[in-house]
Amino acid sequence: MMDIGEIRKYLPHRYPFLLVDRVVELVEGESIVAYKNLSINEPYFNGHFPEKPIFPGVLLLEAMAQAAGILGFKSKGKTPQDGSIYYFAAADELRFKRPCVPGDRVMLRATLLTERRGIAKFAVSADVDGELAASATILCADR
């Protein structure tokens, strides 16, 4: 549904911090399904951890937030070029269930729960081959 060229229109992030490779489903105002392909060539695997590389949990949370940001921007018909930006404001009920490793395709899911006065609440999750890797409830502020 959205390739990396279109994703770059809706997220201000760039390499190495752009963590969404493709959007496969998007229902504006409701939900998004996207993915991140993990390659051993990613810079964080050199130090996290050299003998047993795993995708850092904070980056997994950021990837879920980026998917939610795309959903928010698309739902409002805005882009960062319009002067709008989504700030990651909070994470609650964050749980990590399995490590993500090079070679994994991490599916990123976000559902819009509420939106009031520029603050959006999302239920987010990440899974690999149908196995839950992480989940949280996050807040993003549109400024």
Note the topology.
Blueprint: H1 4-10, E1 22-27, E2 31-37, H2 57-76, E3 86-96, E4 105-116, E5 119-128, E6 131-142
Description:
With 143 residues, the chain is an alpha+beta fold. It has one domain (4-142): Hotdog Thioesterase (Thiol Ester Dehydrase, Chain A, Roll). It is 19% helix and 41% strand. The protein has two helices and six strands. Strands 1-2-4-5-6-3 form a six-stranded antiparallel β-sheet, with helices on one face. The longest helix has 20 residues, at 57-76. It is globular, with a radius of gyration of 14 Å.
Q: How is this structure best summarized?
A:
This protein is of the alpha+beta class.
Fold-level CATH name: Thiol Ester Dehydrase, Chain A
Q: Largest sheet, described in full?
A: 6 strands, antiparallel
Low-confidence stretches: none
The Rg value, from CA coordinates, equals 14 Å
Helical fraction: 10-25%
Please count the helical segments: 2
Mean pLDDT: 96
Structural class category = alpha+beta
CATH level 1 class label: Alpha Beta
Number of domains: 1
The CATH superfamily name is Hotdog Thioesterase
Gross morphology is globular
Q: What is the CATH architecture assignment?
A: Roll
- Strand arrangement within the widest β-sheet reads 1-2-4-5-6-3
Q: Based on DSSP secondary structure assignment, what is the total number of beta strands?
A: 6
Distance between the termini: 26 Å
Strand percentage, roughly? 35-45%
Elements, N to C (H/E):
HEEHEEEE
